[in-house]
């Protein structure tokens, strides 16, 4: 049974809360998954009151919710909302908040989630404030702290953040969100690999030629220059989401599905990634920035012309990486990762290319060259699982063509659940399997830290690509062989 709790959202009037969290709560309400007495307390600086906040949330949900709005469900959700005005960077606010929650204890259940929907620079401050007045202590119910990426800026700052979080909170109380882990297809990777006998025997360096993980989006930085200028594609996407996808594709089967067993296996993958030294970064990583171009029929400006971007900025909006995992299963098999803003399309997929058959049996027939098999996992917008096989063309001659075998989930529909719905429910249930452990975050930074350091010294020039394209062609230099190339579609 899911226990009731008070869900405190710091930064309740900000983008994340308005666009993701509250709409996710609406859908959970609709699915009757929220505990009966759960209350949601929004904390923010604005001089709003509960009534006004509820109106704002109602408007946001009308815009963001999937399908037709159900007013009864919305009303039920709004009843749970309470606004608390205050500056969460000062300890007095937390004292008042504590007194408020205690005074109204018939409204606010004693288990508490603290969700940091705030600037990363304030994570440590708020965790400290909570701890300083004992809101971390679990005397009369549990306490959970939820933080969103970015967890630090590089290895050193990530370690410093961990020290701050751990000052008052224990690891099992901390839920670090990487929303990719809440995506249906990402969870499906484990089921696909470990609930079927067919693929695991092939899932290794003997049969797999290479693996690609792609995240592309047509969107630009959407007015977030302040955040993006100091971040860039490598930190924003690869350090977190893409490396997480890689761990699930590459990990060994855990002994069971408990959170620690699962996370132990993911950490082993990260630890086994061959370190890239600062001097060899050029052979393993490539970055670029978009210039103006067209997305569909819309002309869009280049990165340097986005509002708030410095005219000489070398922040990368595209990053590609080659990694090797030096373990028994994957030695010498390249994993190619890439991500970009203002790309030709919005899509995330994992593409696995198998090796060629050992014998060219059909050499003397009209089949000159056999295409390799691919296994394709579409993460979004369409969840899809497809295997490409060679089959004979109907007719008198021996010719082949590529046939796609689609798993039943391959619809043309977009994902039905938002990752936040799954993750918020897991926080309330106390299941941290889909959240990052401190060592996972640290090892992920270890992987990319040398690249960040090398790029930090190259401030004069950055290659470019046209908005609306698939990125710069020079990125092909990362491939180990001539017959490897980016796979852009499923
Ligand atoms: C976020 C990044 O973590 O993920 C954004 O900060 C990016 O820059 C987003 O656009 C992509 O997430 P999704 O779920 O839309 O693929």
TrEMBL record:
Instruction: Supply the HAMAP family for this chain.
Output: G6PD
**Catalyses which reaction?**
D-glucose 6-phosphate + NADP(+) = 6-phospho-D-glucono-1,5-lactone + NADPH + H(+)
Q: Give the EC number(s) under which this enzyme is classified.
A: 1.1.1.49
Question: What name is this protein filed under?
Answer: Glucose-6-phosphate 1-dehydrogenase
Chain residues that bind substrate: 179, 183, 217, 236, 341
Q: What InterPro entries does this protein map onto? A: G6P_DH, G6P_DH_AS, G6P_DH_C, G6P_DH_NAD-bd, NAD(P)-bd_dom_sf
* Broad EC category: oxidoreductase
Q: In which pathway does it act?
A: Carbohydrate degradation; pentose phosphate pathway; D-ribulose 5-phosphate from D-glucose 6-phosphate (oxidative stage): step 1/3
Residues annotated as catalytic: 241 (proton acceptor)
- Family as reported in the entry's similarity comment: Belongs to the glucose-6-phosphate dehydrogenase family.
Which sites bind NADP(+)?
Answer: 11-18, 87-88, 149
Q: What does this protein do?
A: Catalyzes the oxidation of glucose 6-phosphate to 6-phosphogluconolactone.
Instruction: Name the GO terms of the biological process aspect.
Output: glucose metabolic process; pentose-phosphate shunt, oxidative branch
Query: What do the Gene Ontology cellular component annotations say?
Result: cytosol
Alphabetical UniProt keywords: Carbohydrate metabolism, Glucose metabolism, NADP, Oxidoreductase
Give one GO molecular function term: NADP binding
Q: Which domain of life is it from?
A: Bacteria
Q: What are the residue boundaries of the Glucose-6-phosphate dehydrogenase C-terminal domain, all occurrences included?
A: 190-487
Pfam families linked: G6PD_C, G6PD_N
Q: What is the lineage of its organism?
A: Bacteria, Pseudomonadati, Pseudomonadota, Gammaproteobacteria, Chromatiales
Q: Where is the Glucose-6-phosphate dehydrogenase NAD-binding domain?
A: 8-188
């Amino acid at each position: 049974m899911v226990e009731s709790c008070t869900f405190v959202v710091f930064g309740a009037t900000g983008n994340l809360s308005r666009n993701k969290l509250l709409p996710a709560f609406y859908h959970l309400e609709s699915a009757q998954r929220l505990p009966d007495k759960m209350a949601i307390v929004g904390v923010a600086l604005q001089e709003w009151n509960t009534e006004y906040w509820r109106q704002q949330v109602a408007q946001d949900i009308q815009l963001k919710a999937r399908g037709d709005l159900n007013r009864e469900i919305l009303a039920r959700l709004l009843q749970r909302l309470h606004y608390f005005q205050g500056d969460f960077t000062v300890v007095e606010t937390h004292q008042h908040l504590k007194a408020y929650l205690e005074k109204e204890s018939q409204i606010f259940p004693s288990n508490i989630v603290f969700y940091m929907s705030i600037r990363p620079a304030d994570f440590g401050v708020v965790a400290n404030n909570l701890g300083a007045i004992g809101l971390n202590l679990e005397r009369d119910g549990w306490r959970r702290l939820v933080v969103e990426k970015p967890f630090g800026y590089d290895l050193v700052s990530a370690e410093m953040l961990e020290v701050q979080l751990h000052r008052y909170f224990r690891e099992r109380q901390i839920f670090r969100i990487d929303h990719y882990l809440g995506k249906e297809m990402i969870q499906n990777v484990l089921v696909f690999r470990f609930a079927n006998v067919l693929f695991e025997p092939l899932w290794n360096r003997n049969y797999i030629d290479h693996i690609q993980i792609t995240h592309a989006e047509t969107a630009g930085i959407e007015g977030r220059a302040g955040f993006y200028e100091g971040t860039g594609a490598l930190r924003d996407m690869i350090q977190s989401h893409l490396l997480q996808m890689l761990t699930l594709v590459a990990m060994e089967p855990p002994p069971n599905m408990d959170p620690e067993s699962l996370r132990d296996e993911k950490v082993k993958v990260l630890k086994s990634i061959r370190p890239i030294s600062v001097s060899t970064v050029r052979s393993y990583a490539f970055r670029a920035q978009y210039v103006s171009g067209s997305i569909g029929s819309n002309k869009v400006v280049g990165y340097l012309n986005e509002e708030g971007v410095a005219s000489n900025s070398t922040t990368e909006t595209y990053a590609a990486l080659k990694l090797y995992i030096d373990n028994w299963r994957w030695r010498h098999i390249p994993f190619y990762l890439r991500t970009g803003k203002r790309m030709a399309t919005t899509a995330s997929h994992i593409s696995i290319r198998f090796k060629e058959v050992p014998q060219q049996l059909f050499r003397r027939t009209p089949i000159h060259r056999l295409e390799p098999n691919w296994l394709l996992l579409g993460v979004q917008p369409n969840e899809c699982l497809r295997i490409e096989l060679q089959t004979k063309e109907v007719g008198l001659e021996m010719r082949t063509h590529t046939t796609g075998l689609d798993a039943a989930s391959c619809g043309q529909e977009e994902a039905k659940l938002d990752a936040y719905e799954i993750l918020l429910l897991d926080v309330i249930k106390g299941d941290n399997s889909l959240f990052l452990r401190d060592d996972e975050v640290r090892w992920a930074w270890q992987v990319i830290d040398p690249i960040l350091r090398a790029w930090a010294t190259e401030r004069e020039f950055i290659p470019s690509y046209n908005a609306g394209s698939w990125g710069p062609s020079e990125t092909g230099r990362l491939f180990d062989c001539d017959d490897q190339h980016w796979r852009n579609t499923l």
